[in-house]
Structure formats: structure tokens, C-alpha cells
Amino acid sequence: MTARIIDGKAIAAELRTRVADEVARVKRDHELTPGLAVVLVGNDPASEVYVRSKHTQTQAAGMASFEHKLPADVSQDDLLALIARLNRDPLVHGILVQLPLPKSLHTETIINAIDPAKDVDGLHPNNAGRLAGGLAALSPCTPLGCIILTKSVHPSIEGMNAIVVGRSNLVGRPLVQLLLNENATVTIAHSRSRDLPKLVAQADLVYAAVGRPEMVRGDWLKPGATVIDVGINRIPVPGGKPKLVGDVAFQEALNVAGAITPVPGGVGQMTVACLLVNTLRAACAIQGLPAPAA
Ligand SMILES: NC(=O)C1=CN([C@@H]2O[C@H](COP(=O)(O)OP(=O)(O)OC[C@H]3O[C@@H](n4cnc5c(N)ncnc54)[C@H](OP(=O)(O)O)[C@@H]3O)[C@@H](O)[C@H]2O)C=CC1
Ligand SMILES: Nc1nc(=O)c2c([nH]1)NC[C@@H]1CN(c3ccc(C(=O)N[C@@H](CCC(=O)O)C(=O)O)cc3)C=[N+]21
């Protein structure tokens, strides 16, 4: 059996088209141009790639994009002052501070300073808490993308066994909450979990968000499982460009899984598309408009 490859690129492109249509509608009917501000501290080359792609796609969807690049040695007070300014700026509806931040900055203090209504990353405790309480919230983009990709295979995941490997605030934990909201039965695994292969073998839906290249092996999987690979790992290639691989051994998994996301071309594509969705939603909510269709 060869797994179906879930085309994140195509699904993300379709979602971006829907967002662009809705943006055109709110511009026309309400004179509202949703705006996203991305804050990048330091010059990590991988982060610069994502930030550029966010910028291009935000503009392509008809939204305003504001980029703020700060030096790695920026003071906490200067960064907090920028966030305060963006919180007040009526042209900005979404604020994303690219993580990880340099060690000299206190991430929790920075995230807590973002207006929860503009927190398109869904990381502010108000939003994280609301999500955990099953209430409406801005939810993190990568987990939202994972759910959309899963539903492209299984329109209902009610009652299915899911395992999320990883429990970060950005991916694992919010993904668990979204899966619970979809009525899946969820196992949460992490670095202290015992016998990970055995836990994975019980799952119909496998989410790998660890940051360890190809850690999840093909022979761990239940035959026919749907595998969503969140990992983005750059592997050095002697004399060549680094290669991008996920947290799942893709070639092995192809022979066992029912469906699988590739890296690149899977979850990463959805993350940026969902960021546009969240910015549109935030803009509508701030303006007192009904939630958009996209
Ligand atoms: N495609 C996309 O859009 C995105 C991709 N990513 C990628 O996803 C991956 C995860 O990112 P992120 O969640 O931010 O990473 P973090 O480093 O914040 O979290 C990693 C998680 O994996 C767990 N873990 C580490 N080692 C093991 C192990 N041996 N067995 C089981 N669990 C383990 C850790 O457990 P513990 O809590 O016990 O330490 C932790 O919960 C990375 O490759 C990242 O680049 C991230 C964001 C977006
Ligand atoms: N506050 C914050 N929010 C984030 O959502 C956030 C973050 N910080 N820090 C870093 C991670 C990582 N991340 C990705 C986004 C897009 C791709 C992406 O577009 N990937 C392409 C390929 C990219 C390439 O070729 O390098 C793909 O998988 O097809 C990947 C990873 C968002 N993150």
C-alpha cells in the first residue's frame, strides 16, 4: 500500500483564495483593510524565510503587511514599546512576534503584552485559556492547519484515536485542545513518555511536533493511519544546500500510512494561510463585523 500524499500546498492555496475573496468583500462593503504586523528580532535565516513568505502572502490576499525588524540586542523595554504602539494602531489587526526570541528577552512578558484581540498567534493566556475552556478564541495557526489537513482525509474525526507527540505552547498543546473540540480521543506524548512506538501504534491520527528529524518510524504506525508531520528540520548536505525533513521518516511511513503530509509542502504551507484567516477574523471582530466565511 502507498499512502495518499496530502497536498498542503494546494489546500493552502485554496484557503488563501477564500481569504482574498472575503478581504475584497470587507474592503468594498465596510472600508476595512485587515492589517498584519510581524515582529522579527535578530536575523535567524530560517525565520527570515517565514517572515518574507508571510509578508508576500499577506499582500497577495489584499491585506496590509507591516514588518518590524529589530536587532538581536534590542532591549525588552523597546520591544514592549513597539508592541504598545501596534496595540494602539488602528491599521493593525494582527500582531505576530516570531519565536524563539533571543535569550535576553522574556518571552512570556512579551506575549502577555499583545492585545488578545490582535493575538493572531493565539499565544496570549486569554486565548490559550479560552481554547482550553472550549470557548471561541484566536487559535494558533499551525494547529488550525493540522485540523484542516486532517479533515481533507476524514471530514469527521469524532471518536478517532489521535496522538500528539510534543506539548509546546505553539503547537502540541493547542492542537490537543482543537482535537478535543472535534471529539477525538487524544493521547499527549512528550520527552518523558514511555514506549512511544507502542503509543503511536494505537493511533488512527498521528501528529509529530517534536523537532527531531525523522524520529517517528514507519514501523511504529498503525496500518492506514493518517500522519500529519509538523516538523521542519534542516539537515546539512555535504557540499550542498541543507535538506528540509520532517519529524517522520517519510519514505518508511509511505508504505504503512493511509495518508501523510510531506515536508515541505504540508503543514508549513497551512500555517501561513491560517495566519491570514486569523488576521481577517481579528479585523472583523475588532470592527464589530460578523465572523467571516473563510
Ligand atoms: N510547519 C510549521 O508551520 C511549524 C513547524 N514547527 C516545527 O515543529 C517542530 C516542533 O516545534 P515546537 O513545538 O515549537 O518545538 P518545541 O521544541 O517547543 O517542543 C518540542 C516538543 O517535543 C517533545 N520532545 C522532544 N524530544 C522528544 C522525544 N524524544 N520524544 C517525544 N517527545 C519529544 C518535547 O517534550 P518536553 O515537553 O518533554 O520537552 C516538546 O514538548 C519543530 O521541528 C519546528 O520547527 C513549529 C512551528 C510551526
Ligand atoms: N510566533 C511564531 N508563530 C509561528 O507560527 C512560528 C514562529 N513563531 N516561529 C517559527 C515557526 C515555524 N513556522 C513556519 C511557518 C511556515 C513554514 C513554511 O512555510 N514551510 C514551507 C517551506 C519553507 C522552507 O522551504 O523553508 C513548507 O513546509 O512547505 C514553516 C514553518 C512558523 N512558526
Architecture overview:
It is a single chain. The protein is α/β, with parallel strands linked by helices and 294 residues long. It has 2 domains: 27-119, Rossmann fold (3-Layer(aba) Sandwich); 141-268, NAD(P)-binding Rossmann-like Domain (Rossmann fold), CATH 3.40.50.720. Helices cover 40% and strands 16% of the residues. It has 10 helices and 11 strands. Strand 5 (161-165), helix 7 (172-181) and strand 6 (185-189) form a beta-alpha-beta unit. Helix 6 (141-151) crosses helix 10 (267-286). The model has no long low-confidence stretch (mean pLDDT 97). The site of 5,10-Methenyltetrahydrofolate (GUE) has 20 residues, from helix 2, strand 4, helix 6 and helix 10. The site of 5,10-Methenyltetrahydrofolate has 20 residues, from helix 2, strand 4, helix 6 and helix 10. GO terms for molecular function: methenyltetrahydrofolate cyclohydrolase activity; methylenetetrahydrofolate dehydrogenase (NADP+) activity. Residues 140-284 form the Tetrahydrofolate dehydrogenase/cyclohydrolase NAD(P)-binding domain. It catalyses: (6R)-5,10-methylene-5,6,7,8-tetrahydrofolate + NADP(+) = (6R)-5,10-methenyltetrahydrofolate + NADPH; (6R)-5,10-methenyltetrahydrofolate + H2O = (6R)-10-formyltetrahydrofolate + H(+).
